[in-house]
Design brief:
- The protein is mainly β and 170 residues long.
- It has 1 helix and 13 strands, in the order E-E-E-E-E-E-H-E-E-E-E-E-E-E.
- The strands form 4 sheets. Strands 5-6-2-1-9 form a 5-stranded mixed β-sheet. The protein has a 4-stranded antiparallel β-sheet with strand order 4-3-7-8, covered by helices on one side. Strands 10-11 form a two-stranded antiparallel sheet.
- A hairpin with a 4-residue loop joins strand 1 and strand 2.
- It starts with a strand and ends with a strand.
């Protein structure tokens, strides 16, 4: 189960696993069951916070901001259950007896059973204006789709009080 809204990935196992053995960087998302398929996209996690259920059968990984933004930057990856698959190396996790999980190679990945899409709007928090390079850089709290940017609604002004000072609409 992946929730892009909460940045949480929940994995279910058929036997208890050892929390201390989890290596999140051995977990790879891919957009199709086979990573080598035409148009396939993949993304390897770089970290995250890990929690485990009391029975050891469910692992919840809270993805890092960089990882959730990395997933969002891949247009065809993790946009629904049909584009959310995971695979892992044999170093990913051990059971409570110390046995490593059998790896899933690039030709066989597990499809997400549930998916919650991103329904939370982005936050714009700052900008940089460079008059020498004629650039305006906008900073948001998450990865943005550049194709949706409408620059005609951006207005630069000399102060917060727009009605009293100079304004320039792009």
């Amino acid at each position: 189960y992946l929730s892009v809204n909460t940045s949480k990935l929940v994995l279910q196992f058929d036997e208890p696993v050892n929390l201390d053995s989890i290596n999140v960087t051995d977990l790879i998302f891919q957009s199709q069951v086979t990573s080598g398929a035409s148009g396939a996209s993949n993304f390897r996690l770089t970290g995250g916070d890990i929690a485990i259920s009391a029975d050891g059968l469910h692992v919840t990984i809270t993805l890092t901001t960089d990882d959730i933004n990395g997933l969002k930057s891949k247009r065809l990856l993790a946009i629904g259950t049909n584009s959310t698959f995971i695979r892992y190396t044999d170093n990913f996790i051990k059971d409570t007896s110390g046995n490593y999980i059998q790896s899933l190679n690039e030709t066989f990945a597990i499809q997400a059973t549930n998916y919650t899409r991103d329904t939370v709007g982005p936050l714009f928090f700052s900008f940089d204006l460079n008059m020498f390079q004629n650039t305006l850089t906008l900073h948001f709290n998450e990865t943005m789709d550049i194709d949706t940017l409408n620059i005609s609604v951006i207005t630069l002004q000399t102060s917060v009080l727009a009605n009293l000072d100079f304004q320039y609409r792009l």
